[in-house]
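re: ur question from earlier - yeah i can do the single chain one, its not a big deal. heres the input i used so u can compare w yours
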Amino acid sequence: MPSELQWYVLCNLINGLPQIQWYVYQVEITGDFLYIHARSATLAENTTLFIINAQGEFI
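and the output i got, formated as tokens:
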């Protein structure tokens, strides 16, 4: 279960990515880390990984 801070950062990320034509396609949680996989809406091979710790900080 994501922490409250992780949930807040995830919601902000999901709301902000469409502005730059990206979207979240997979979310995983392992231990205290939330892994968010995002992909470009225009070039599917362009992907990125966001890692958020339990304190809601990007790593």
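Residues 28 and 38 are 12 Å apart (CA to CA). not sure if urs matches, ping me
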